[in-house]
Prior knowledge:
There is one protein chain. By secondary structure, the protein is of the alpha+beta class. It has helices spanning 33-46, 118-127, 148-158, 165-169, 176-187, 196-209, 220-224, 232-247, and strands at residues 3-9, 18-24, 69-70, 73-74, 96-100, 109-111, 114-115. It is built from eight helices and seven strands; from the N terminus they run ββαβββββααααααα. The strands form two sheets. It has a five-stranded mixed sheet with strand order 2-1-5-3-4. Strands 6-7 form a two-stranded antiparallel sheet. The longest helix is centred in the C-terminal third of the chain and has 16 residues, at 232-247.
Amino acid sequence: MKLTLKIWRQKDRNDKGGIETYPIDNVSEHMSFLEMMDVLNEQLVSEGKEPVAFDHDCREGICGMCSMQINGEAHGPDRGVTTCQLHMRKFKDGDTIYIEPFRAKGFPIIKDLVVDRSAFDRIQHAGGFVSVNTSGNTQDANAIPIPKTDADNAFDAATCIGCGACVASCKNASAMLFVSAKVSQFALLPQGKVEAKRRVLNMVEQMDKEGFGNCTNTGACEVECPKGISLENIARMNREYLKASIFSE
């Protein structure tokens, strides 16, 4: 395939940045999107130009590093996949593809398509963990009976990889789906009950500090999420937050 790539180039977070155009040829439909970007960068290097900076790590849809806004959609036109799992068969010969970084106040651009998502780390540090009882009276987690529906829902929430597609697809750049997944992961399990009130209050407070917007239940986050995290988690987090607010007073 022959393609025209319109890519956002920005030297650093202080640079104004802008869209630059790159023609690319001999793109196989069997390539992944990141393999196509590798071909482009090889072409740029051979021409003595600076390659496009973009994040990637596992290339298996696990780490969430490869986040890109492709033709206005987080992770591109496919569903239930990350950018590294998106294949060029989703595009046609002669297509023009717009490639931009995720845009949100909480995700400042570092360079080109790379954004700083450390805000998610700080939200998790605020309460996305379970303290370990080392008193000598610890109970094996496998010995604690948990209803299967609760275990399944907790596992589904835990599949969130923190890629930020929910933020990028939300008109308010809300991080509610991400935070609710991390809250739900522990709220459903007995190990997470001990710190439940403090956890949800701290994580929501940190989310607000990072500058993410509010949820308006548009549902774009669930549609674009590569792991299909459900909006039901946001409802659960709201209930947990309300209970914690009442009983913490």
